TrEMBL record:
It catalyses: 1,2-dihydroxy-5-(methylsulfanyl)pent-1-en-3-one + O2 = 3-(methylsulfanyl)propanoate + CO + formate + 2 H(+); 1,2-dihydroxy-5-(methylsulfanyl)pent-1-en-3-one + O2 = 4-methylsulfanyl-2-oxobutanoate + formate + 2 H(+). Fe(2+) binds at residues 99, 101, 105, 144. Keywords: Amino-acid biosynthesis, Cytoplasm, Dioxygenase, Iron, Metal-binding, Methionine biosynthesis, Nickel, Nucleus, Oxidoreductase. This is Acireductone dioxygenase. It comes from Erythranthe guttata (Yellow monkey flower). The lineage of its organism: Eukaryota, Viridiplantae, Streptophyta, Embryophyta, Tracheophyta. Pfam families: ARD.
Length: 195
């Protein structure tokens, strides 16, 4: 009898439903009891992920394949920590404000760790913990936010299709075409299938 193989992404990405606590945003915020979220559930929300070789990101053939297949032609790096990010306190507050983008948000964690929080179909928060080696794609139009974890450090490669565009639209922005397309593709599609 064959054993079920473990998804290698579990080493660098974990997801769970968040509690409603107002405690420090950098804490895990697990529900009690803990409610973990599968990669399949994230996929259903349009959230894609990979485990990559962060020690060799310059030459990693898997990253190259993903970039070519998805058209990610531009990259840069962002280090988020009090010592490296100008206006750290203001920026971390802005990152944690619920927002969406009109393009995908692609982040590849090459050092450190942090949390991307995304809304599920019922508006509950799912916390996605990314660690070194995790690459995550948030689809255009999904409401989300970001914060560091208690390690207070992440270095992420930001990837873009064409010129870098990173304009956050704080909630509510349901009238934007990207939001309408997201709802149609990932929210209504499943609701209709269940009916």
């Amino acid at each position: 009898m064959g054993s079920l193989s473990k998804d290698e992404r579990e080493e660098v990405i974990q997801a769970w439903y968040m509690d409603e606590s107002d405690e420090d945003q950098r804490l895990p915020h697990h529900r009690n009891p803990k409610e973990f979220v599968s990669f399949e559930k994230l996929d259903e929300l349009g959230v894609l992920s990979w485990k990559l070789d962060a020690d060799n990101y310059e030459t990693d053939p898997e990253l190259k394949k993903i970039r070519e297949a998805r058209g990610y032609s531009y990259t840069d790096f962002c280090e988020v920590c009090p010592e490296k990010l100008p206006n750290y306190e203001e920026k971390i507050k802005n990152f944690y404000e619920e927002h969406l983008h009109t393009d995908e948000e692609i982040r590849y964690c090459v050092a450190g760790s942090g949390y991307f929080d995304v809304r599920d179909r019922d508006e509950a928060w799912i916390r996605v913990w990314v660690k070194k080696g995790a690459m995550i794609v948030l689809p255009a139009g999904i409401y989300h936010r970001f914060t560091l974890d208690s390690n207070n450090y992440i270095k992420a490669m930001r990837l873009f299709v064409g010129d870098p565009v990173w304009t956050p639209f704080n909630r509510p922005h349901d009238h934007l075409p990207a939001r309408k397309q997201y709802v149609e593709a990932f929210v209504e599609k499943v609701v209709d299938a269940a009916a």
